Amino acid sequence: MFDQQERDGEDVVERVIHELRRPVYIDRAVDARVMNEIAQPAPAEPVARRSVARVLPWLAAAAVLGAVLIGRPWSPGGNGADAFQFVLVAPQAASVSLVGDFNDWDPSRAPMHAARGGVWATVVSLPPGRYRYAFLVNGVEWRADPSAPLARDDEFGSPSSVVTIGGRDS
Amino acid sequence: MILLALLAVVAQAPTQDPRYQRLDPETRARVVAIVDSARGAGLPSEPIIQRALEGSMKNAAGDRIVAAVRRLAVDLGTARDALGSKATSPELEAGVAALRAGATPATLTRLRDLRKPPVTMALAVLADLVASGVPADSATAALLVLAPTVRDADLVEFRRAVERDIALGAPPASATSVRAAAADLNATGRNAQPGKP
Lengths: 170, 197
Fold this sequence. Notes:
Chain A is an alpha+beta fold. Chain A has 3 helices and 7 strands; from the N terminus they run αααβββββββ. Helices cover about 35% and strands about 25% of the residues of chain A.
C-alpha cells in the first residue's frame, strides 16, 4: 500500500518537472512593443508641476537655513558662551543654590531644581574663562562640587570648586 | 563738557557698583582702594571683586576678605608679568591658579611661548592636576610636552584620565606621565599629514 502511494507521488513530481521544463512561447513582437512604449513621451502633469514649482523656493530656503544652522556651532548664551550643567546629589536637601564668580555669589540668581532621587541641577551659560563656585545647601551649608576640581586657595574656610571653559578647540 | 561729565561718571563707577554694598563700610573702602589700584595698573578688576563677594557670601571677616583680595591682586600682577600685557582676564586668572599650584613665572612664560593663545586651559589643567595630588613638577612637565599640540578638549580629557587613574590607586606622577605620553601620541597622529611616511 505504501509502495503504491510512493509511486503516485513520484508521478506527480515528474509531471511538475516536465511542466516546468516546457519552453514558454513568447510573442516575437513583445520586445518591439515594450521599446515603443518606453520611447513615448510621458503625459503632461501640469498640476503636479505647479506643486513642485510652488515648493521649490521653500525647499531652497530650508536648505540655506539648514546649511547656516549646521555650519554654526550652537551657542545658547551668545558671545561664545557654552551651556554648562551643574549637578549635585543631595537627597536630604530642601533647597540648593549654585553660587560663583558667574553670578556675583548671589544665591537668588541660580536656584537649582530637584529631580528624582535628590538630584539637583541647573544650567548656566558660561563664556570662556575660569570660575570658582560652590553649592549652598539649605541656605547654610557650603559644598564643593564632587565632580569638579577643588579650588586650592580656600581662603574663607569653606570649599569651592573650579570650572574652566576653554576658548580654543581647533 | 559732556566728555568731562562722562569721565566723572566713569571715574566714580567702581565705588557706585551696587555689589560693593554687600561689604561692610570699612571693608568696602579697603577693597575699593585695591580694585582701583589694580585697575590703574592695567589688571582686570572683576576677579578681585568676585573674590570679595565670595568672602562676603561666606561670612568671612573683613580683614580676611581684604587679605584675600590683596593677595589676588598681587598674583594677577605676577601672572601678567609672566604672560605678557596681551594676556586676557581668564588667562591671568588661570595663571594665578597655576602659580598658586607651584608653577613658576618662567613656566607660565614658557607655556605662553609654546601654545597658541589662549593658554587658559593649559594653565587651568596644570593647577587642577596639582589639586588632584599630582606633584607640581610632574604636572608642569606634562603640560610643557602637551602644550604645543594638544587641543583644549583633549587637555580636559587628559586631566580626567589622570584623575580616574589616581582614584583607582595609581601613583599621581606615574599616571600623569603615562597619560601625557598617550595624549601626545594621539595629538601627533592627528596632526600628521596623511600620505606622508
